[in-house]
Amino acid sequence: MDKAKVFYGTGRRKTAVARVWMMHGQKGFTVNGQAPADYLKRSRLLELVERPLKTSKLEDQFRIRAKVHGGGIAGQAGAIQLGISRALVQYDENLRPGLRKESMLTRDPREKERKKAGRRGARRSFQYTKR
What we know:
The protein has a single domain (3-101), classed as Ribosomal Protein S5, domain 2 (2-Layer Sandwich). It contains four helices and four strands, in the order E-E-E-H-H-E-H-H. The chain has helices at residues 36-40, 43-55, 73-91, 96-101; strands at 6-13, 16-24, 28-31, 62-69. The relative contact order is 0.22.
């Protein structure tokens, strides 16, 4: 494998982490060894993952291999999208403004809030009863 044609990007979303390798001049797309449609299952998530390539008009120019773990499939799809976007910027720095405008280079910082002591959840309290 020619190292000059391989581009790498790491994406994170919620608790999901995606490592994405893109090989220029080849075709194909795998997520954890499976086709993206089989792995992600929902068409909306598949569109989310392919959005950076469609925005930069480079759909059939890369072979993409993504390894993703943690979180659910929606968080994993967001992580893959960020990983692909970062790898595209590594391929061509001129793609950055278009991807930035579509907010595909911004890491979504929202994470689950921790459960607090003395409560049922992060914010939910027990039902008050006047005795």
